[in-house]
Specification:
With about 425 residues, the protein is α/β, with parallel strands linked by helices. The protein has 3 domains: about 150 residues, 3-Layer(aba) Sandwich (Alpha/beta knot), CATH 3.40.1280.10; about 55 residues, tRNA(m1g37)methyltransferase, domain 2 (Trp Operon Repressor, Chain A, Orthogonal Bundle); about 180 residues, Alpha/beta knot. Helices cover about 40% and strands about 15% of the residues. The chain has a 6-stranded parallel beta sheet with strand order 14-13-10-16-15-17, sandwiched between helices. A 5-stranded parallel beta sheet has the order 2-1-6-5-7, sandwiched between helices. A two-stranded antiparallel ribbon has the order 3-4. The protein starts with a strand and ends with a helix. Bound molecules: S-adenosylmethionine. S-adenosylmethionine binds next to β5. The site of S-adenosylmethionine has 20 residues, from β5.
């Protein structure tokens, strides 16, 4: 693999490319690299490689000409990758794809980035190494080089090593331990000392599943799992974030179609479907909130039918879902019950089809790892303003950018919970 590095700081690469496995790979001729400094192609006496941005604003922009000439000076540039926070996110799949190339040119930006017309002159792709901003593309280029070079045959001593690492099977790697087995009273997991290789390999797989489910459920959703994996996850999948989330289906005070505050009747389907969502995602609980006595009675009859009555015989599976349903007269009552269970008051978060929201989905996910949240869903035409004004935060509307976003409350509940706790989050 031949890397061509375009950078105004070629000295940046010398240390990292001369030590460890990378240094050895260079010495053995497994990888080679050349350094091309755009400054060598600058035409003015100051050897400038940047200029002020058109349209104003802070910082400087890398000029086209020295960069284009730098690329043109490479006899076989191969695929040209421009490091940029706004590019395709680099991952193990891309590393594998690039490992099959013979030549790669990595263009390292500096300042505010590169003149956007570069791509019109040099067929190239932009690559980001993460959702953060660095001073320049050099450290990103080194990340790419290491990840790609590790996949070259014989780069590492053992040909198996890259196959066992994080992401190779779509999951994180399992935890590793070495001697001593007992460090100041903290022991290595017993199974690793058992000598039972089948058990060890199952345990490692389960640890990888747990770590991936906890931090990157999106990876789990993209990985083909086996029946043993699913049965393990089913036994362990109730996450802390899920347990901390409570749903409240508010029937009063909500708005009617004339924007007047009103009380709305219960809907059988809402209760069933939201109870099933609550159960599927392992939530702390689901409160049906109505001050109307006859509606509370109706809700109790409905829930009893499925938990204890004929419904239980007809569909035993529904019992579990209906077990999460609680009936409360108002917000205060449901809040007190959640507080009794959690030992602290939950954060109150409202949902709305209108407005902008005050917290992002990611913010809410972070809160759920630490404290309970009571998420309110409005029936009718949504939660009344007095409810919205009394909450701690409001989530952004679902499909806010769409000309039509009037979802049923049970659909909104499912989409909202999946966005917060689902594999895509
Ligand atoms: C200060 S950054 C420019 C940031 C740019 N103005 C922005 O906000 O997206 C300078 C250079 O660092 C490199 N860089 C910074 N963060 C990066 C990242 N996350 N991935 C890849 N390259 C990055 C790019 O080459 C970029 O042109």
């Amino acid at each position: 693999m031949n890397y061509h590095l375009i950078s105004i700081f070629p000295e940046f690469f010398q240390g990292p490319l001369s030590c460890g496995l990378m240094g050895r790979a260079v010495d053995r001729g497994l990888i080679s690299y050349s350094l091309i400094n755009p400054r060598d192609f600058a035409r003015d006496k100051h050897r400038s490689v940047d200029d002020r941005p058109y349209g104003g604003g802070p910082g400087m922009v890398m000029s086209l000409d020295p960069l284009i000439q730098a690329v043109e000076s490479i006899p076989d540039p191969g695929r040209v990758l421009v490091l940029s926070p706004g590019g395709r996110l680099f991952d193990q799949t891309m590393a594998r794809e690039l490992a099959a190339e013979e030549d790669l040119t990595l263009v390292c930006g500096r300042y505010e980035g590169i003149d956007a017309r570069f791509q019109q002159f040099v067929p190239s792709e932009t690559v980001s190494i993460g959702d953060f901003v660095l001073n320049g593309g050099e450290s990103g280029a080194l990340c790419l080089m290491e990840a790609i070079s590790r996949l070259q045959p014989s780069f590492m001593g053992s040909a198996d090593s890259p196959l066992e690492e994080s992401f190779s099977s779509g999951l994180f790697d399992h935890p590793h331990y070495t001697r001593p087995a007992d460090y100041k009273g903290t022991m290595v997991p017993e199974v690793l000392l058992s000598g039972d290789h089948r058990k060890i390999s199952r345990w490692r797989r389960e640890q990888a599943l747990l770590a991936t489910a906890a931090f990157r459920p999106d990876l789990l959703a993209e990985t083909l799992l086996g029946p043993e994996d699913y049965s393990f996850l089913q036994r362990t999948s109730r996450t802390k974030a899920g347990r901390n989330l409570y749903l409240g289906l508010v029937h009063y005070p909500v708005l009617d179609k004339r924007n007047k505050t009103t009380a709305v009747s219960l809907t059988n389907m809402d209760i069933h479907d939201i109870a099933r969502v609550s159960c599927s995602y392992g939530l702390g609980g689901f409160y049906v909130i109505t001050p109307l006595q006859d509606q509370q009675e109706l809700a109790r009859t409905l829930v009893k039918h499925w938990r204890e009555g004929a419904g239980k015989k007809a569909n035993p599976d529904r019992v579990r879902a209906m077990e999460s349903v609680e009936i409360a007269a108002d917000l205060r009552e449901s809040l007190t019950r959640i507080e009794d269970r959690c030992g602290r008051p939950p954060k109150l978060v409202a949902t709305s089809a209108r407005g902008q929201g005050s917290m992002t989905w990611k913010d809410l996910r972070t809160v759920l790892y630490k404290e309970p949240v009571f998420l309110l869903l409005g029936t009718g035409y949504g939660l009344a303003p007095e409810v919205i004004q009394g909450v701690n935060e409001v989530l952004p509307p679902l499909r806010a950018g769409s000309p039509y976003n009037h979802l049923s409350v049970r659909t909104a509940a499912a989409v909202t919970v999946d966005r917060i706790l689902g594999e895509g989050g």
